[in-house]
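Before the break, one more example. Copy the sequence into your notebook; we will annotate it together after we see the structure.
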Amino acid sequence: MRKPVVIFLGISGVGIVIVIVAALIVFFTYTLDTFKSPSLLRPPCDSKIFCYGDFLMHAQIWADGRDSKQLVDLAMKEDEQVIVEKFEDLLKGK
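Here is what the structure looks like once it is written out:
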């Protein structure tokens, strides 16, 4: 009596092994490339106003459950660095 061959989505056992090995090669190649080039590890957003930092935290607390998209939709009237500096001065009480 013959043993049944496991077929998954039309791929035999050997085919599945080949696909898994290929996926691992791609994964480790990409992982090694990210360690060689730290620029690939940048956060998706680097704005101290819209992405992270004290300004964003205080704006979210102040918004108190309002739609957070409103902040992102606002246009800046000054340069980002100027806004951050003025905000930091405000926190220090200057």
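The chain has two domains: 1-41, 54-92. Residues 1-41 form one domain. Try to locate both features in your own notes.
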